[in-house]
Design goal:
Blueprint lengths: L1 H4 L5 E2 L9 E4 L2 E4 L25 E6 L7 E8 L4 E9 L4 H6 L7 H11 L15 H24 L1 H5 L2
Length: 165
């Protein structure tokens, strides 16, 4: 929202390997995630990279400012590492987007309470509550880097799979 308030025409996120919801804020879209575009399953890290079924759905947007956004849905096919077109629909008519955006009417304080209880990955990952808290966020960044280094060490030692991280 702050990016749009600062003049951005829209915000498109892309990281959690699954399609996220979409909100319209001051007439501009905030797209939480387009999906896994294109991280093939079982190809990297010696074939051990696997994602759950929720990552098979992909989203492409057709966005022309001043017009309705069109959602184009695709599905990743594990067997041949291809994308298959499923359907297209108006954002305003999309039941799928509506289901993916249960937080759309929440203000910041409500969302900050809702998010920790509903996020997918919870294992020792911090929640960033305010982008203006630079010192606190830098500490969280440091911790996340150290956590990732620890996970990589566990991976090399074979312990990670045992711990199911």
């Amino acid at each position: 929202m702050a990016a749009i308030d600062a003049g951005a025409d829209g915000v498109i996120g892309h990281h959690p390997h699954r399609v996220g919801g979409i909100e319209i804020y001051n007439g501009s879209p905030i797209v939480y995630s387009l999906g896994n575009w294109w991280m093939p399953h079982g190809v990297y890290f010696g074939g051990k990279l696997k994602f759950g079924d929720e990552t098979l759905l992909q989203l492409a947007l057709e966005w022309n400012p001043g017009q309705d956004i069109v959602c184009h849905w695709f599905e990743y096919i594990r067997e041949n590492h291809q994308m298959a077109y499923k359907s297209s629909e108006s954002l305003l008519d999309s039941k799928q987007i509506h289901q993916l955006t249960p937080f759309s009417s929440m203000d910041s304080k409500m969302y900050q309470k809702w998010f920790p209880a509903h996020r997918v990955k919870r294992k020792a990952l911090p929640v960033y509550r305010d982008y203006n808290h630079h010192y606190r966020n830098n500490l969280k960044d440091w911790y996340v880097k150290k956590r990732q280094s620890g996970i990589m060490l566990l991976e090399k030692s074979g312990v990670r799979e045992y711990l199911k991280l």
